[in-house]
């Protein structure tokens, strides 16, 4: 058959129909394969979406469960704090070591959920809403984190710190500690601190070879920022250790002052002494009471023409020689009773004769021992609560050393004292016989027992410290089996009232 004949056969209707059918079958197969591919992709995507949604649901359930675990830890911490009946708050108590416990899983029967709780005393920090400029400057200076001038108008680091402290005071009150970020001149490093950095290669090698101590590489140390050292929630009741309201030496009347007793229940002020305190008062802090005059300016003006330091006046019956006069002659003066007369005699015995009649005003109203007996019972405020007092039982070295009258050595001595073993272990027990570690301060006067703390130091710091706290931050974490934090609740509570109040709340 010739080529022409074959071509003629291919053009027959039967051949053309067969060819078209074969082409259609090929296209159908390709279309089917594409459809199957698309359906497979859609099915895979659908299955993936179902799995992803399942994981989301599971994660949501887990987060919800661990959130309630964290919330349970928070409530447990509140109960622990409320049950604390000791008249002080120290790091040696049970609450300070934190809480680790479990709750039942409400979904999976028999499963338990872990939580961990950290309780932080807000009284261990500087209250940035009440601190004075000097304290803020000391805090900034001690941190060592303020680098570079915050204004072209300042030349020295000291001026730089003072300018920033003034900016902080002008921006008050702060609603949260992190509001400090909006203060002009505040830096991220100063606010949040310097995180711990890994050791350099050379330092690590030297440490491995035993040629350098672990703490010699300063770059490996972290420095706390202001957020770690300041608060706005520190609060204490204005009561003594027994729960009685303190006496305001700036506003109390004569009767209230004469009813004031020391730790031995002995009357502290006679009527004339109370009157001398009233006439000389305008006390910025309770420590100023140590400077109060036994003979007030008003009393001195009334008796000035009746007293003398000249021995030639000894025969003058109308004059009293304050250098030689006995108790009887001194009490003949208006405003001088037996107790004040004794203080005048004690003063001249210890310091020598008065050179001038005006020197009688140098006689002090109370002795350091008297002050120690009443320091926890007096105040300069009529408020029921006090903000900004530092708890000497919990404050770290960084906070203690910047208080008035303190330095690093004295601050460390306070910490050493409170961490030492108590001589009376029976007194260091809670109502349920739980032992309290260390030797907590039970009265601010106990600071005088610390080595290196003299009367002058105590006078400066007395009005700034306390031995307890009614404000606490609670951080409660819901933990999975691998120890990871799945949910976190952070709150600050105030327990000065009959009911615990939550002053701050955040959950993650």
What distance separates the N and C termini?
Answer: 89 Å
**Beta strand %:** 5-15%
As for the number of domains, it is 4
Strand sequence of the main sheet, in spatial order? 1-2-13-14-15
Assembly category: single chain
Model description:
With 508 residues, the chain is α/β, with parallel strands linked by helices. The chain has 4 domains: 1-57; 67-125 and 234-238 and 383-508, no CATH class; 145-224, no CATH class; 254-375, no CATH class. 37% of the residues lie in helices and 13% in strands. The protein contains 16 helices and 15 strands. It has helices at 3-10, 13-83, 133-143, 157-170, 188-192, 201-208, 226-229, 254-258, 271-279, 297-303, 327-330, 338-351, 368-374, 397-400, 408-419, 455-461, and strands spanning 99-104, 112-121, 126-127, 230-231, 235-237, 247-248, 307-308, 320-321, 378-379, 385-387, 390-391, 465-466, 471-479, 485-494, 501-507. The strands form 6 sheets. A 5-stranded antiparallel sheet has the order 1-2-13-14-15. Helix 3 packs across helix 4 (157-170). The longest helix is centred in the first third of the chain and has 71 residues, at 13-83. The chain is elongated. The protein starts with a helix and ends with a strand. The relative contact order is 0.14. Residues 198-220 have low confidence and may be disordered.
